[in-house]
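We emphasize that the prediction below concerns an isolated chain of 565 residues; any contacts that depend on oligomerization or on bound cofactors are therefore not represented. The input was used exactly as deposited, without trimming of termini.
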Amino acid sequence: MGHWLCPKCDCVNYRRREACFKCTEPMPPDALKEADEARARAAAERAQEETGELVEGRRRRRKGPATADGEDGLDAGAGAAHVNPEETGRPRNRRNRGGATTPASQATAHTRGMDISTKAVASPTVARTILPLTTPLYLTSTYQLHDVDHGATLQEGREVARHQCPYVYSRWGNPTVDAAAAILADLEAAQFCRLFPSGMSAICTTLLSLLQSGDHIVAQSPVYGGTHEVLTDVLTRLGIESTFVDNTIESFRKAKRPNTKLFYGESPTNPTMSLLDMVAFGKLGKELGVTTVVDATFATPLNVQGLKCGVDVIVHSGTKYLGGHSDIVIGAVVTNSQKVSDQLAHTQKILGSVPSPFDAFLLARGLKTLPVRMERINATALQVALFLEGHPAVSRVHYPGLKSHPAHDLATRQMAGYGGMISFEVAGGLEAGRIILESVRLIHLAVSLGGVESLIEHPALMTHTMVPKEQRQQWGITDDLIRLSIGLESARDIIRDLKQALAKVSRTPKAPAESGDAPRPARQRRRRGRQAADADANGDAPAAPAADGEPAAPAEHAEPAEPAE
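Result of the prediction step, given as a token string:
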């Protein structure tokens, strides 16, 4: 078909195009003629070169070793004839079926005559006509410039021409990172999105961008342990004060000072699963002239779009649900404020807190499956929470989807789904919790959350151990609290795993009563064991054990039937 080269942006266009597909520059009158002549010259040079190489190679193979006087030896076979490739009718360059059709000699024509060390470096670039279906992975630290003015324009932050590369250095911007950020911005209904190497990097950069020495921040309690450490350690050393309040809007109003610049919250909170009324939170910030920031990692944009609620800035740990496969560490900040976005970009560039293109590539992949994953996780988590709420070894369950949750009405009004995070308290304290954590088989004992695998952990000993114990107790992070992240396993299998782990807590021997009562005889224990087995076989709930000489009381907590997948 033939191609012609755009004189303005150097793009390669098909012969049938009358204008450049990229910059719409009209095709010059002599473009096709020049392209045909150049192609003919290249083909002639290539044919001459390949013919000479073939003839020379066959001549060497047919000749014997050189003689002592320097002349070539006899041909390897008597009467062997030199074959001219032009006479064989075979093609000089066979095309790679399904692959590139450009000969290697043509692809590396610009390195002919150079030393081998130069050829190793001066590799050809990717053709501009390639249009990949998926997000490309640009593993490059810097970018080629058209001219000096192009570089100066980028350094000054001005907009470049359409045919020029808009990137100068990957600390300032990368195409793969920007592509992933654009997907997340679309999901959050945001105008601006910036990605960071981790969720904590996103939080720290946000706080450092919006606060300065002498400012005051009001933060909801509880917050993630790492966030608490930043507020009480890093910001304190910079002269920024923090006040912790509960999740009521009135508490934020009362805690405001003349130098308060930022309200910070989480919804749902980690790990107690309390909720923040984002609409009222956003209105309060605008009324008082205070920037509002919410960490919505537990919710994801599939369940809550915080910017639509009126919040100024939404923070995510993309390591969790957004990535969704437990294979990246990345963070994100979204906003509709041009001023906030510019402040974030400036601080990020100076600190160098940018994610790797590979992590951004995996984030973009994870975001494409986020809707289907969250739909499954939301449904499974509700079934698991209902099971835990009805189990006698569980004293309390924290999950917004349960009617027993104090903010259930708010969750129903504010969230499209209740999320995949559950926390629950077990009777027996720390030791009972340790037994459960070390007895699960399908669920993994690990920190983090939001992956395809279900994870379980102990907040007081793991994710919030940096928070002083007295403050943990005030926040409701007790030693008997367990946090559970629901994955993509079936609800039935997750419940079975939890059931067998909780059963070990129920079977754990208890300390004898202070009255010194003697244990029941072995015969009586065996008889009651057989009664429980018969009741289980008939589908009845086992009777609660009674004191000696008293009739057995009916069970108060019959376990619900296992849900369908």
